[in-house]
Design goal:
The chain contains 13 helices and 12 strands. The protein is of the alpha/beta class. An 8-stranded parallel β-barrel has the order 1-2-3-6-7-10-11-12, surrounded by 8 helices. The two termini are 18 Å apart. Bound molecules: the ligand O=c1ccn([C@@H]2O[C@H](COP(=O)(O)O)[C@@H](O)[C@H]2O)c(=O)[nH]1. Ligand LLZGTKA7 binds next to strand 12 and helix 12. Residues 16-279 form the Orotidine 5'-phosphate decarboxylase domain.
């Protein structure tokens, strides 16, 4: 259990980017929606069909240059079981193209319930002796604020299946400081304490590149805290949201990386998915090409501040 597979993909592509797949209908070109609505009407099924077609188009244009995708479950669950099927199909398709899949579910519960989440998203479900993958992501985002009871069941499955988790530590949203920045026990912040818990949860599962399979979510919108946490948590790999649509830039992300240019993967969802809507006169059929162009721009932007990514 580590992020070795992810790190190798990042280094191979020289790209520390994860493309977020948060498909709102407003981001999907009309021609795709028309096709799906012709088949299924303006229904949950029609919407889910459009999402899957849109995602596959994006993946086809991104898989050779971007190492990972991050579907956010909410954008699928809003279409009921059709949407959840589109999520499962998206994960399967991205994996068939060799991409690393981070399922953004921010799951959080205790004991056996957390074990059920772990089985659903990272493990295999036992159906009376027959085992099958339900979703099959490579990593899952989780909320660690229930403590070890919510994390230990995941660790067991992650070890068995070589999967990873990203625990919310310092989130990118404006109100994240209301709780996460509180100081206690002298001047230790809640986010730093949560980060140290990640370092501790991961200490037995450190991979060959020095990072464990217990990662942390730290927002690009708080660059000083990113730098502080990189210094404090040398074995914890970071998932960094907040680049692009939330205002973060490459310089804000710099502190997340180590001296070898690894240690983090930076997410952009709307920035990549909606790139086509920002290009005047673009034929909407070229939506995925516009996403590719933005992903290349983002890769080069990040590389300009972190340099070459090397395996040690
Ligand atoms: O602290 C956090 C944790 C998760 N997210 C998620 O990342 C993407 C960001 O999307 P953009 O369109 O690139 O802003 C989205 O899925 C969030 O739920 C986050 O933003 N911040």
């Amino acid at each position: 259990m580590s992020f070795d597979r992810l790190i190798e993909k990042i280094v191979e592509k020289q790209n520390p980017t994860v493309a977020g797949l948060d498909p709102k209908l407003a981001y999907i070109p009309e021609y795709i929606k028309e096709e799906s609505f012709k088949k299924y009407g303006k229904t949950l099924e029609g919407a889910a069909d459009a999402i899957l077609t849109y995602n596959k188009g994006l993946i086809d244009e991104l898989y050779d240059i971007v190492p990972a995708v991050k579907p956010q479950c909410a954008y699928y669950e809003m279409y009921g079981w059709y949407g959840v099927r589109a999520l499962a199909e998206t994960i399967k398709y991205a994996k068939s193209k060799g991409m690393f899949v981070i399922t953004d579910g921010k799951r959080n519960d205790i004991g056996t319930t957390m074990e059920a989440y772990a089985i659903a998203h990272l493990g295999e479900t036992d159906i009376d002796g027959e085992k099958e993958e339900a979703f099959g992501g490579d990593a899952l985002t989780v909320n660690g604020y229930l403590g070890s009871d919510g994390i230990n069941p995941l660790l067991t499955i992650c070890e068995e299946k070589d999967k990873g988790i990203f625990v919310l530590v310092k989130t990118s949203n404006p109100s994240s400081g209301e709780l996460q920045n509180l100081e206690f026990r002298g001047d230790e912040t809640v986010y730093l304490h949560m980060g140290r818990m990640c370092e501790d949860w991961g200490k037995k599962v450190v991979g060959k590149y020095g990072y464990s399979g217990v990662g942390a979510v730290v927002g690009a919108t708080y660059p000083e805290m990113l730098t502080e946490l990189r210094g404090e948590l040398p074995k914890t790999f970071f998932l960094v949201p907040g680049y692009g649509a939330q205002g973060g830039g490459a310089n804000d992300c710099k502190g997340a990386f180590d001296q070898n240019g690894i240690g983090a993967i930076v997410n952009s969802s709307r920035g990549i998915m909606c790139a086509w809507q920002k290009i005047e006169g673009l034929d909407e059929k070229d939506y995925a090409k516009a996403a590719r162009q933005e992903a290349i721009r983002m890769r080069d932007d990040l590389k300009s501040v972190i340099g070459e990514m090397k395996l040690k």
